[in-house]
Protein backbone atom coordinates (compact mmCIF):
# COMPACT_ATOMS: atom_id res chain seq x y z
CA UNK A 1 0.00 0.00 0.00
CA UNK A 2 1.11 3.49 -0.72
CA UNK A 3 1.61 6.15 1.91
CA UNK A 4 2.97 9.65 2.22
CA UNK A 5 4.60 11.29 5.22
CA UNK A 6 5.10 15.02 5.38
CA UNK A 7 7.50 16.02 8.13
CA UNK A 8 6.27 19.07 9.95
CA UNK A 9 2.67 20.17 9.97
CA UNK A 10 3.83 23.79 10.18
CA UNK A 11 6.95 25.43 8.76
CA UNK A 12 7.84 29.07 9.29
CA UNK A 13 10.48 30.93 7.28
CA UNK A 14 11.49 34.54 6.83
CA UNK A 15 10.86 36.30 3.56
CA UNK A 16 13.84 35.66 1.29
CA UNK A 17 14.90 32.50 3.10
CA UNK A 18 15.08 29.00 1.68
CA UNK A 19 11.87 26.99 1.74
CA UNK A 20 12.22 23.24 2.36
CA UNK A 21 9.13 21.08 2.78
CA UNK A 22 9.82 17.41 3.35
CA UNK A 23 7.98 14.47 1.87
CA UNK A 24 8.71 10.77 2.11
CA UNK A 25 6.66 8.13 0.38
CA UNK A 26 6.15 4.43 0.41
CA UNK A 27 5.26 2.56 -2.75
CA UNK A 28 5.79 -1.00 -3.90
CA UNK A 29 5.95 0.06 -7.53
CA UNK A 30 7.54 3.05 -9.27
CA UNK A 31 5.53 6.05 -8.15
CA UNK A 32 4.14 9.15 -9.66
CA UNK A 33 4.73 12.01 -7.22
CA UNK A 34 2.98 15.35 -6.92
CA UNK A 35 3.00 18.53 -4.90
CA UNK A 36 -0.25 20.49 -4.67
CA UNK A 37 -0.78 23.87 -3.02
CA UNK A 38 -3.87 25.28 -1.38
CA UNK A 39 -3.83 29.06 -0.96
CA UNK A 40 -6.16 30.57 1.65
CA UNK A 41 -9.77 30.36 0.53
CA UNK A 42 -8.81 28.76 -2.78
CA UNK A 43 -8.93 25.27 -4.20
CA UNK A 44 -5.96 22.95 -4.56
CA UNK A 45 -3.77 23.38 -7.59
CA UNK A 46 -0.84 21.43 -8.96
CA UNK A 47 2.64 22.82 -8.26
CA UNK A 48 4.67 20.11 -9.97
CA UNK A 49 4.79 16.40 -10.69
CA UNK A 50 7.28 13.63 -11.28
CA UNK A 51 6.36 10.78 -13.59
CA UNK A 52 9.47 9.51 -15.36
CA UNK A 53 12.75 10.89 -16.61
CA UNK A 54 14.61 13.76 -14.98
CA UNK A 55 14.53 13.48 -11.22
CA UNK A 56 14.68 17.24 -10.63
CA UNK A 57 11.28 18.69 -11.45
CA UNK A 58 10.55 22.38 -11.80
CA UNK A 59 7.11 23.74 -11.07
CA UNK A 60 5.26 27.00 -10.94
CA UNK A 61 6.21 30.01 -8.83
CA UNK A 62 9.89 29.03 -8.58
CA UNK A 63 9.34 25.75 -6.73
CA UNK A 64 11.19 22.56 -7.54
CA UNK A 65 11.43 19.05 -6.14
CA UNK A 66 13.88 16.20 -6.50
CA UNK A 67 12.88 12.55 -6.65
CA UNK A 68 15.40 10.48 -4.70
CA UNK A 69 14.55 6.82 -5.03
CA UNK A 70 17.24 5.67 -2.59
CA UNK A 71 15.78 7.94 0.09
CA UNK A 72 12.14 7.51 -0.99
CA UNK A 73 11.88 11.28 -0.80
CA UNK A 74 10.39 14.08 -2.87
CA UNK A 75 11.22 17.25 -0.94
CA UNK A 76 9.94 20.61 -2.19
CA UNK A 77 12.25 23.62 -2.25
CA UNK A 78 12.29 27.25 -3.24
CA UNK A 79 15.44 29.37 -2.92
CA UNK A 80 13.75 32.54 -1.70
CA UNK A 81 10.38 32.69 0.03
CA UNK A 82 7.81 35.34 -0.81
CA UNK A 83 4.92 36.41 1.37
CA UNK A 84 2.60 35.10 -1.33
CA UNK A 85 3.95 31.56 -0.78
CA UNK A 86 2.06 31.29 2.51
CA UNK A 87 -0.28 28.36 1.94
CA UNK A 88 -0.77 24.69 2.70
CA UNK A 89 1.27 22.25 0.67
CA UNK A 90 0.36 18.64 0.03
CA UNK A 91 2.59 15.87 -1.25
CA UNK A 92 0.85 13.01 -3.06
CA UNK A 93 1.73 9.65 -4.58
CA UNK A 94 0.05 7.38 -7.06
CA UNK A 95 1.35 4.21 -8.62
CA UNK A 96 2.07 3.75 -12.27
CA UNK A 97 -0.62 1.13 -12.55
CA UNK A 98 -3.60 3.22 -11.66
CA UNK A 99 -5.18 6.46 -10.64
CA UNK A 100 -5.60 6.14 -6.89
CA UNK A 101 -3.78 9.07 -5.31
CA UNK A 102 -2.76 9.22 -1.67
CA UNK A 103 -2.12 12.62 -0.12
CA UNK A 104 -0.01 13.53 2.86
CA UNK A 105 -1.44 15.40 5.82
CA UNK A 106 -0.14 18.70 4.52
CA UNK A 107 2.38 21.29 5.67
CA UNK A 108 1.28 24.82 6.36
CA UNK A 109 3.95 27.33 5.33
CA UNK A 110 4.14 30.67 7.14
CA UNK A 111 6.31 33.45 5.72
CA UNK A 112 7.46 36.18 8.09
CA UNK A 113 8.26 39.69 6.92
CA UNK B 1 -13.33 27.08 -19.74
CA UNK B 2 -15.40 26.00 -16.79
CA UNK B 3 -13.65 24.24 -13.95
CA UNK B 4 -14.89 21.57 -11.60
CA UNK B 5 -18.04 22.64 -9.81
CA UNK B 6 -19.60 21.22 -6.67
CA UNK B 7 -22.94 21.74 -5.01
CA UNK B 8 -24.01 22.67 -2.50
CA UNK B 9 -21.13 24.74 -1.21
CA UNK B 10 -22.34 24.28 2.35
CA UNK B 11 -24.65 21.70 3.85
CA UNK B 12 -25.86 21.49 7.42
CA UNK B 13 -27.77 18.37 8.29
CA UNK B 14 -29.02 16.59 11.35
CA UNK B 15 -27.45 13.37 12.53
CA UNK B 16 -29.14 10.40 10.93
CA UNK B 17 -30.24 12.19 7.76
CA UNK B 18 -29.01 11.27 4.27
CA UNK B 19 -27.12 13.80 2.14
CA UNK B 20 -26.17 13.97 -1.52
CA UNK B 21 -23.20 15.93 -2.77
CA UNK B 22 -22.81 16.70 -6.45
CA UNK B 23 -19.75 17.13 -8.65
CA UNK B 24 -19.62 18.40 -12.24
CA UNK B 25 -16.18 17.59 -13.68
CA UNK B 26 -14.38 19.37 -16.48
CA UNK B 27 -15.86 18.30 -19.79
CA UNK B 28 -13.85 15.52 -21.41
CA UNK B 29 -12.02 14.45 -18.27
CA UNK B 30 -12.16 10.70 -17.94
CA UNK B 31 -11.19 10.40 -14.28
CA UNK B 32 -13.17 11.73 -11.32
CA UNK B 33 -12.11 11.57 -7.69
CA UNK B 34 -13.71 12.20 -4.32
CA UNK B 35 -11.70 13.16 -1.24
CA UNK B 36 -12.54 14.16 2.30
CA UNK B 37 -10.58 16.94 3.99
CA UNK B 38 -10.84 17.06 7.75
CA UNK B 39 -9.15 19.69 9.86
CA UNK B 40 -5.50 18.82 10.30
CA UNK B 41 -5.80 15.50 8.50
CA UNK B 42 -5.04 16.31 4.91
CA UNK B 43 -6.95 14.76 2.06
CA UNK B 44 -8.41 11.31 2.50
CA UNK B 45 -9.02 9.38 -0.71
CA UNK B 46 -12.56 8.08 -0.97
CA UNK B 47 -13.22 6.80 -4.50
CA UNK B 48 -12.29 7.34 -8.11
CA UNK B 49 -13.93 6.64 -11.45
CA UNK B 50 -11.92 6.16 -14.65
CA UNK B 51 -13.76 5.90 -17.93
CA UNK B 52 -15.90 2.78 -18.10
CA UNK B 53 -13.81 0.83 -15.61
CA UNK B 54 -15.20 -0.29 -12.28
CA UNK B 55 -14.64 2.44 -9.70
CA UNK B 56 -11.98 2.06 -7.03
CA UNK B 57 -14.03 2.26 -3.82
CA UNK B 58 -11.22 1.25 -1.51
CA UNK B 59 -11.23 4.54 0.38
CA UNK B 60 -14.89 4.65 1.34
CA UNK B 61 -14.91 4.59 5.17
CA UNK B 62 -18.12 2.62 5.63
CA UNK B 63 -21.08 1.20 3.76
CA UNK B 64 -22.98 4.40 4.55
CA UNK B 65 -20.93 6.04 1.80
CA UNK B 66 -21.61 5.43 -1.87
CA UNK B 67 -20.99 7.24 -5.12
CA UNK B 68 -22.08 6.99 -8.69
CA UNK B 69 -21.11 8.62 -11.92
CA UNK B 70 -23.78 8.88 -14.56
CA UNK B 71 -22.97 8.99 -18.25
CA UNK B 72 -19.29 9.38 -17.53
CA UNK B 73 -19.84 12.92 -16.33
CA UNK B 74 -21.67 14.13 -13.22
CA UNK B 75 -21.03 12.29 -9.96
CA UNK B 76 -23.01 12.12 -6.74
CA UNK B 77 -21.57 11.15 -3.36
CA UNK B 78 -24.25 9.92 -0.97
CA UNK B 79 -23.83 9.60 2.77
CA UNK B 80 -26.61 7.73 4.53
CA UNK B 81 -27.49 8.09 8.19
CA UNK B 82 -24.95 10.84 8.69
CA UNK B 83 -22.84 10.93 11.84
CA UNK B 84 -21.03 13.85 13.44
CA UNK B 85 -17.67 12.39 12.41
CA UNK B 86 -18.76 12.80 8.78
CA UNK B 87 -18.40 16.58 9.17
CA UNK B 88 -15.66 17.66 6.78
CA UNK B 89 -15.04 19.32 3.44
CA UNK B 90 -15.72 16.95 0.57
CA UNK B 91 -13.60 17.67 -2.49
CA UNK B 92 -14.10 16.46 -6.01
CA UNK B 93 -11.40 16.48 -8.68
CA UNK B 94 -11.21 15.45 -12.30
CA UNK B 95 -8.33 14.69 -14.62
CA UNK B 96 -7.58 13.70 -18.15
CA UNK B 97 -5.42 10.64 -18.62
CA UNK B 98 -1.78 11.68 -18.93
CA UNK B 99 -0.03 10.80 -22.17
CA UNK B 100 2.37 8.56 -20.26
CA UNK B 101 -0.51 6.73 -18.61
CA UNK B 102 -1.69 7.02 -15.08
CA UNK B 103 -3.25 10.12 -13.55
CA UNK B 104 -2.90 13.50 -15.15
CA UNK B 105 -3.10 16.72 -13.21
CA UNK B 106 -6.12 16.74 -10.95
CA UNK B 107 -8.30 19.84 -11.07
CA UNK B 108 -10.14 20.38 -7.83
CA UNK B 109 -13.54 21.85 -7.18
CA UNK B 110 -14.20 24.31 -4.36
CA UNK B 111 -15.59 21.60 -2.10
CA UNK B 112 -18.76 21.07 -0.11
CA UNK B 113 -18.52 21.82 3.60
CA UNK B 114 -20.69 19.31 5.41
CA UNK B 115 -21.69 19.92 9.00
CA UNK B 116 -23.61 17.24 10.86
CA UNK B 117 -25.31 18.50 14.00
Describe the protein:
The complex is a heterodimer of chains A (113) and B (117). Chain A has 113 residues and is mainly β. Chain A has strands at residues 3-7, 10-14, 19-26, 31-38, 44-50, 56-58, 64-68, 73-78, 87-95, 101-103, 107-112. In chain A, the strands form two sheets. In chain A, strands 2, 4, 5, 9, 10 and 11 form a six-stranded mixed β-sheet that branches. In chain A, strands 1-3-8-7-6 form a five-stranded antiparallel β-sheet, with no helix packed on it. Chain B is mainly beta. Chain B contains no helices and ten strands. Chain B has strands at 5-7, 10-13, 19-24, 31-37, 43-50, 65-69, 75-79, 88-95, 107-108, 112-116. In chain B, strands 2, 4, 5, 8, 9 and 10 form a six-stranded mixed β-sheet that branches. Chain B has a four-stranded antiparallel β-sheet with strand order 1-3-7-6, with no helix packed on it. Chain B is globular and about 40 Å long. Chain A binds chain B through residues 6, 9, 32, 36, 43-46, 49, 51-52, 90, 92, 94-106, and chain B through 31, 33, 35, 40-45, 48, 50, 56, 58-59, 91, 93, 95, 98, 100-103, 105-106, 108-111.
Write the layout of secondary structure elements.
The complex is a heterodimer of chains A (113) and B (117).
Chain A: E1 3-7, E2 10-14, E3 19-26, E4 31-38, E5 44-50, E6 56-58, E7 64-68, E8 73-78, E9 87-95, E10 101-103, E11 107-112
Parallel strand pairs in A: 2-11
Antiparallel strand pairs in A: 1-3, 3-8, 4-5, 4-9, 6-7, 7-8, 9-10, 9-11
Chain B: E1 5-7, E2 10-13, E3 19-24, E4 31-37, E5 43-50, E6 65-69, E7 75-79, E8 88-95, E9 107-108, E10 112-116
Parallel strand pairs in B: 2-10
Antiparallel strand pairs in B: 1-3, 3-7, 4-5, 4-8, 6-7, 8-9, 8-10
Largest interface, chains and sizes? A-B, 26 and 28 residues
Order of helices and strands of chain A: EEEEEEEEEEE
* Helical coverage of chain B, percent range: under 10%
Described by strand count, sense and barrel closure, the largest sheet of chain B is: 6 strands, mixed
Question: What oligomeric assembly is this protein in?
Answer: heterodimer
Any idea what the shape of chain A is?
Answer: globular
